[in-house]
Amino acid sequence: MSPIGKTQPTGTAGLRDSVLGRDLSFLLARANALTLAAANAALAQHGLKARSYSVLALAADDVRPTQRELAEFLRLDPSQVVALVDELEKRQLVERRTDPADRRANVLVVTDTGRALFARAQESAHAVELGLLAAVTPQDHERLAELLRLLAFPT
Amino acid sequence: MSPIGKTQPTGTAGLRDSVLGRDLSFLLARANALTLAAANAALAQHGLKARSYSVLALAADDVRPTQRELAEFLRLDPSQVVALVDELEKRQLVERRTDPADRRANVLVVTDTGRALFARAQESAHAVELGLLAAVTPQDHERLAELLRLLAFPT
DNA sequence: TATTGTTATACTCTATAACTATA
DNA sequence: TATAGTTATAGAGTATAACAATA
């Protein structure tokens, strides 16, 4: 039936030229799905997932974020942050400290072991990212990050 | 405590300059989350979500994809495609036709009403996408799509 | 009154395994 | 023996509402 002989295993190749294959939202979703899967696989050896890695990363920075800030930044519900911090705190990677300025708020502080684990996890994450970006030149890598930043943080 | 007076409502701004704020995987995830939410909101008026919109889009193209191809292309489990197609078929937007070449496979064909609905939904989706890309120039829009394609379809 | 963190709950999404019919 | 579609089910992820402590 199809004019072109089906030499491909599954025949997905043809779909890339469809309308959807040019749709930015779809490309974003698919790129994210692949990246997330690869990241989770690489982080598993450290007992982390993309979510917990992100929380640990922000704690390891000396930003001292409150849980509310984490929720907003990571686009998570505050109740989800509770579970993530619970897990990291149980593993003694981070600590909750009540903010003296606002005693309702918890500020996240990384522990020494947390910082050490993050350093190792970051290496794994970075290696995976480089693998995914194999087809992208280094300057385009930065260009892509800039463009994504515009989408991720609309003023 | 913080050196900078907290003039911002929540203080998320500082987190953007963190390590994570420069991480491509994170930017991808956040950009995707915002885009997906906006797309779903816009598609709701047509009784669609990003998922069902994608399936309808591929059916509306004359690619005649099998469900297996849809699953692979959309990174969904074949069982999820069943549910999506069930819903679209119940609304008479698409039809399942058994592929004469391989009678195990179902080929998706769009109906006239399906095509009409897709045209309207596509307009909504496109309008939303333009809104999200307000800070991106048209040529950068295309550049972003190209770079995302490299990530979304690794050879 | 409003907000932070928390708990509980329900809902959606995702992943897995088993089954059928075709190949 | 393998593959396409289907079904059922359990797990992960997400969203919502209500509550205690603090502002």
TrEMBL record, chains A, B:
Transmembrane segments: none
Species assigned in the record: Plantactinospora alkalitolerans
Protein name: Winged helix-turn-helix transcriptional regulator
Gene3D superfamilies, A to Z: Winged helix-like DNA-binding domain superfamily/Winged helix DNA-binding domain
Domain called HTH marR-type: residue spans: 21-153
SUPFAM superfamilies: Winged helix' DNA-binding domain
Record PROSITE patterns: HTH_MARR_2
InterPro entries, per the entry: HTH_MarR-typ, MarR/SlyA-like, WH-like_DNA-bd_sf, WH_DNA-bd_sf
Lineage of the organism: Bacteria, Bacillati, Actinomycetota, Actinomycetes, Micromonosporales
